[in-house]
Each structure stands twice: as C-alpha cells, then as structure tokens.
Amino acid sequence: MPPSTHGDADGDLPLPWSGAADKASYYRLFVAYVMALFATGVATVALALFAYGLAGEGAGTVLGTALSLKALAYVVGAPVAAALTLHLRRKPLLITLDLLRAGGLLLLPFVTAPWQVFIIVFVFSLASAVFTQTYQTVVPYLLARREDYTKSIARSRIATELESSLSPLLAAGLLLVVTSRGVFVGMAVVFLISAWLIGRATLPGTLAQRSGSLAMRILRGPRLFLAAPDLRGLIALNLVVACVTAMVLVNTVVLVQGDFGLERRASALAFAAFGVGSILGAVTLIPSLRILPERAIMLAGAALACLGLFGGAVLATGYPGLLGVWVVLGLGTSVALTPATFLIRRVARPRDSQLLFAAQLALANGFLLVGYSAAGWLGAVHGMTPTFLVLGVVATLGTVAAGKLWPPAVTEPAAGSPPG
C-alpha cells in the first residue's frame, strides 16, 4: 500500500505507529542506501591515491583539505540544504542526489588542479548529507510498525559499520585491476543503480510546505533541539560518542603500530574490533527498545563508553587489552547513539523531522571535528594514558549532563511545539 503524502496541514502531531507498511519500497530504498554508502566509502579510498597522483608530496594537504570540506558540508551545509529542500518531493530529490554524486565522480578523472577536487568533494559530501537525512525522514512512512522501524535502525547501523570495515578492502581489490579513475567510474555506475532502485520505490511526496524565511528554517532544527528535553540530552550524548570515536579513529594506528610495534593488519583488526562492538550494540537494540525507554538505553550506553575510556588507560597497554577495550567502546557508542533516530522519529512533527535529522547530523560531525583535534593533540603531547583519562572525564561530564537535561519524567513528545 503506498504511503500517504503528509504536508504541513496534518503535521501538527508526531507520526503515529499506524501499523501500515510498504516493505517492498523500504527494501528497495534500503538497498539503494547501502549501495550509495559503499560507493562513497570506496570512492574516498580511491581519492587518496588520486590526490597523490595529482599533487605528489602535497597529496596529504590536498586530502586533508578535502576531508575538512567534507566535514564542513555535514556541519554547516546539511542544515542549510535541509531548509532549502524541505518542500521538494522525496523521490525526485533522492534520485537527483544520486545523479549528482555520480556526476561528481565522473568529473574527477578530468580535474587538473586541487581546487577542482575541493569543489567536487564539497558538493558530493553535501549531496551525501542530504541523502542521509532524507532517507531517515522517509523510512518512518514506509515502516509504521514500531518493531519494523526498530529493525531498520539496527540494519542501518550494521550497514555503516560493515562499510567502514569492507570499503578499504573493496577499494584495494578494485585498485589491483583498475586505476583510481576506473574506480570513480565504477562507483558512479553504482550510484546510477541506486537511483534506479529509488525510482522503483513508492515514496511519500512533499512532507512539508515552505514557510518562513530561509534563516528561520535553518535555525528551526537547532531551536527545536534546545526546546525539547529529550533532544537537549541528545546533544550531550553526541559529545560522549565524539570523545570515544575520536580516540579510536585518531589513535588506533598510533597505539598499535607506534607503541606496540605491530603491522598494519593489526591496526585493521583493532578497527574491526570496534566495529564488532558497534554491531553487537545495534543487534541488542531490537529487544531492548521493546521493554526500555530510549533514555535508559542511551544513558547506559554512554556510561559503558565512559568505563571503556577509563579502562583503556589501564588495559590498553598491550594489544589484547586494546582489542577488548575497543569492543566495549564500540558497544557503548552504538547503544548510546543509534536510538537517536528512533527518538527523533518519536518526538518530531512530520514537517520538522528532516530539519531535526539535519541538526543531529551537524551536531554529531561538529563534535567529531573538535574531538579529532583534541585526541590528536593530547596523544601527541601528553601520551595515550592521559588522553584516555581526559576524554573519559569529558565523556563522563557529557553523560551526567545528558541525564540532567533529559529527566526521566519526560515521556510525551517534546518537539511538538515550535519554540518562539
């Protein structure tokens, strides 16, 4: 049964659990999402080699700038793009975003200067950010049973973790037989297939009408976050997860290959241990959300993440201990933040959902930007044990703040009334 089109007129209450489902359309959309996810990951790996061919010894600067622009697209560009595209029909928007990314990859082989790479990477990243938030906005209309929606959140998290582990392997395999330019062309084809799958799905139309100035629409998501106790707590939980993620992504190689003197494969296994913990966390959410409120689950995950950081100061002095700590950190961060999608779906009016998903995406990536710098600087200047302890203290403060900002008495949808 096709999902209904919701507009501003009937968007005064959060979307109910109606029990309706269009699983065929959901699975087409999910496969398209996963294909785009992997295509993005593989293309990012190929971009590193392409940057070296373009800039030689300056490749590090080129790649670093490109990745900074990617983060900027998520932090600043995503909320602006969400406000600009709020009134557009979902299916044409998703297809256009896939075509835009395919076009960007097809242009990369022809660039001759770093500034051209920077423009393509920014537009590509902005399209990816809008695609993600639009996907998150559409899924509740296709899966209106609580159980189905919970499983979809777990699937998305598992897909993300598998992509981060498998994309480098896929890229390495492809680069054995084709050049980085060939990889870009191949991934562009993947985006075209993703667009075709979306075209075969039945999706809701316009979910909101354009209202107010652009500035008001851009600021609406952050204002709703600050107005709702549930979402204020989520802001602090983003800080907790950023502390852990930054420690793992920035310092794993330093610990494994620098301090322990092991090979690159050992670093890959350590990253995989973190991913395994994250997948375990996603799987446990399916039964947990049946019996526990989001607040209890997410705060428990944050507390586990804090324990993992403090435990790292003692246990991560050797490789086996590091693997165990990384599994715990992956589990904690997954449990702490994966239900955020469920939480936003529960409290948001349909007309506000994409703005809230965009705000969450910007918050998470904004904290990560700060976390990367902090984890790198602390590790380089003070060593790993103090870094674990400092990030553990910051994460603990974030967990306490989340508990205070999000009181247990909050049970009703809290983002239903626009602030001001």
Automatic annotation (TrEMBL):
<feature type="transmembrane region" description="Helical">
    <location>
        <begin position="67"/>
        <end position="86"/>
    </location>
</feature>
<feature type="transmembrane region" description="Helical">
    <location>
        <begin position="355"/>
        <end position="375"/>
    </location>
</feature>
<keyword id="KW-0812">Transmembrane</keyword>
<keyword id="KW-1133">Transmembrane helix</keyword>
<feature type="transmembrane region" description="Helical">
    <location>
        <begin position="269"/>
        <end position="289"/>
    </location>
</feature>
<keyword id="KW-1003">Cell membrane</keyword>
<feature type="transmembrane region" description="Helical">
    <location>
        <begin position="387"/>
        <end position="406"/>
    </location>
</feature>
<dbReference type="GO" id="GO:0022857">
    <property type="term" value="F:transmembrane transporter activity"/>
</dbReference>
<dbReference type="GO" id="GO:0005886">
    <property type="term" value="C:plasma membrane"/>
</dbReference>
<feature type="transmembrane region" description="Helical">
    <location>
        <begin position="224"/>
        <end position="249"/>
    </location>
</feature>
<feature type="transmembrane region" description="Helical">
    <location>
        <begin position="184"/>
        <end position="203"/>
    </location>
</feature>
<dbReference type="InterPro" id="IPR011701">
    <property type="entry name" value="MFS"/>
</dbReference>
<feature type="transmembrane region" description="Helical">
    <location>
        <begin position="323"/>
        <end position="343"/>
    </location>
</feature>
<feature type="transmembrane region" description="Helical">
    <location>
        <begin position="30"/>
        <end position="55"/>
    </location>
</feature>
<dbReference type="Pfam" id="PF07690">
    <property type="entry name" value="MFS_1"/>
</dbReference>
<dbReference type="InterPro" id="IPR036259">
    <property type="entry name" value="MFS_trans_sf"/>
</dbReference>
<feature type="transmembrane region" description="Helical">
    <location>
        <begin position="296"/>
        <end position="317"/>
    </location>
</feature>
<protein>
    <recommendedName>
        <fullName>MFS transporter</fullName>
    </recommendedName>
</protein>
<keyword id="KW-0472">Membrane</keyword>
